[in-house]
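Re: Re: token formats

Sure, here are both.
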Amino acid sequence: MNAEKKIKVDYYKGPFGPTIRVSVPSTEALTILRKLFNNLASGSISKYSFRLDPLVELIGLQDLCLHVVRERKCKTVDVIRRENEQAEAIWSNNLDGWDQCLGLLDGLTGTIPGHQYLSEEGIDDALIVMAYLE
């Protein structure tokens, strides 16, 4: 897949603090992410690493790992800084939390650019923004 079609996961200091922006360049990429969130919400997968996905380009992050946990905690995003390496983010939710994230993606459709915030500013180590066609 060429670089323009890849899902870009960018970690940077944004106006609301540390931010992980997932840039979704097409309806096909959005469908892939919806399927991923559906698999997490249904429990058919329990872990997922963006680092291992050839459709994803990581910028400023070593990895973004998604985990299913039994109980949802207030804080869902942990950023671990490793010495001499880029940060790694771990995003954990229970099945209902992943289902809620999947529901938020329903607002992103068609050819209309938009974004959704999928984590909590001031609670999580990073604000996760899903940006569709932006």
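Second one below.
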Amino acid sequence: MSALNNVAVQWGIRRIFDYSGWIGTFVGGAALFYAGLTPSQQAMISGLLQGNWQDITLGSLIPFLVLIYSQIISYRATVKPQAIVEENGKLVTNTLSPAKETEVSKTVQNVSSRKSLIEILLGK
């Protein structure tokens, strides 16, 4: 029972659900990604994991590298700060004009005033 009284062990026990969720998400995502590959790409990955580097063909390696590259580009586009284009076509990054800022603050007030969606759309 003295092991359960250890602060580090108690911390680990409290984190079981958090870390198991992360691990489950990663393993499940990797399994779904693997299931979505073509049979030749699956054979290539199996060969890599088994250490059979000599069995990898360019026909399976090149499409796999293209797939990985497309996922990296997609991730970068997702986390990249978005630019705002105003009516006059001017490109503004991370700032709003005073008129737009007022409009945004009014919208936030409407949403936070606990009005229903129909009331907001009807202008009540």
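Residues 83-122 form one domain. The helical segments are 7-14, 16-35, 39-50, 58-79, 98-112, 117-122.
- S.
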